[in-house]
């Protein structure tokens, strides 16, 4: 794939149709610059997770199938819809030339050249946000088992450590609802919060910390450690990170892309 034209021809030439239009993941993996399907699995997993976040059925877009290779040996492959290929391109390694070409191709299909880099970043934000939701649930369970009585105070201890302010104070500073603080955070800030959450859970478990006060102190200390890392690497305080467009808007745009990409293979359904 040396240029955009070759990318378009190559991608469409590998299209299959049997009830649905699909591409074999094993072939897309190589097309996108990966050694094999195994090395591409993480990209498929991330595309699956993105669909789950968007409430789009991944069962209809990433279909596991047993196939036989040229030696007659069975292996698992996946039928990927055009939208699954789109998400795979957006979640692929941006340093790969093939991924860059694939992203450009889908930007043509969705007519969103100006949002190409932003969308790839937004999908990453969306996935980290989902990890934070899962991480918070796990941390809450661990903290409860360790003796947290007032979870709000425990939670704010982490914010005090990381931001030097409670969550409602940070929300006021940013003019957002405190329940939606994560929605406008950029990738780096979301990743920092995910690190705070997972490291706090690890510290509680590995050091056998228990009791409300001790747990609050542990969370605050981890938050302070994360704050120092942010200051060292970004030369700013976490509370001063720039905010980005809200994740609900990101989801809305991706669902529009989903409909548009589906219509490419279902022209009769276009309005």
Strand order of the largest sheet: 1-2-4-3
What value does the average pLDDT take? 91
What is the alpha-carbon Rg in Å? Answer: 22 Å
Order of helices and strands: HEEHHEEHHHHHHHH
Judged by helices, strands and strand pairing, the structural class is: alpha+beta
- What is the rounded distance between the termini? 34 Å
How many distinct beta strands?
A: 4
**Number of helical regions:** 11
Detail the poorly predicted runs. 1-9
Q: How many structural units, i.e. domains?
A: 2
| Morphology call | elongated
Portion in strands: 5-15%
Major pleated sheet: 4 strands, antiparallel
* Helix percentage range: 55-70%
Could you describe the 3D structure shown?
The protein has two domains: 4-110, no CATH class; 121-250, no CATH class. With 271 residues, the chain is α+β, with helices and mostly antiparallel strands. The protein has helices at 4-13, 25-31, 37-53, 82-91, 97-110, 116-145, 151-163, 167-174, 187-207, 212-234, 247-265, and strands spanning 16-18, 20-24, 62-68, 74-80. It has eleven helices and four strands, in the order H-E-E-H-H-E-E-H-H-H-H-H-H-H-H. The chain has a four-stranded antiparallel sheet. Helix content is 63%, strand content 8%.
List keywords for this structure.
271 residues; alpha+beta; 2 domains; 4-stranded antiparallel β-sheet; 11 helices; elongated; disordered N terminus
Task: Draw up the topology in text.
Blueprint: H1 4-13, E1 16-18, E2 20-24, H2 25-31, H3 37-53, E3 62-68, E4 74-80, H4 82-91, H5 97-110, H6 116-145, H7 151-163, H8 167-174, H9 187-207, H10 212-234, H11 247-265
Antiparallel strand pairs: 1-2, 2-4, 3-4
């Amino acid at each position: 794939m040396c240029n955009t034209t070759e990318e378009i021809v190559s991608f469409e030439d590998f299209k299959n149709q049997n009830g649905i239009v699909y591409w074999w993941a094993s072939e897309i993996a190589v097309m996108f610059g990966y050694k094999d399907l195994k090395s591409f699995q993480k990209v498929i997993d991330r595309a699956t997770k993105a669909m789950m976040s968007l409430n789009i059925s991944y069962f209809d877009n990433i279909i596991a199938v047993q196939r036989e290779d040229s030696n007659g040996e069975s292996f698992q492959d996946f039928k990927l819809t055009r939208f699954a290929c789109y998400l795979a391109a957006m979640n692929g390694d941006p340093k790969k030339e093939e991924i860059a070409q694939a992203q450009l191709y889908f930007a043509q299909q969705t007519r969103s050249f100006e949002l190409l880099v932003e969308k790839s970043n937004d999908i990453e934000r969306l996935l980290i946000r989902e990890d934070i939701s899962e991480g918070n649930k796990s941390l809450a369970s661990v903290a409860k088992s360790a003796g947290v009585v007032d979870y709000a105070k425990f939670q704010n201890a982490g914010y005090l450590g990381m931001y030097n302010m409670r969550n409602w104070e940070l929300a006021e500073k940013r003019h957002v609802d405190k329940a939606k603080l994560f929605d406008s955070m950029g990738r780096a800030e979301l990743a920092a919060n995910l690190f705070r959450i997972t490291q706090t859970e690890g510290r509680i478990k590995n050091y056998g910390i228990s009791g409300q006060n001790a747990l609050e102190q542990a969370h605050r200390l981890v938050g302070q450690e994360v704050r120092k890392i942010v200051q060292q690497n970004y030369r700013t305080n976490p509370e001063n990170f720039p905010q980005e467009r809200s994740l609900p808007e990101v989801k809305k745009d991706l669902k529009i892309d989903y409909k548009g990409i589906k219509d490419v293979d279902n022209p009769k359904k276009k309005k």
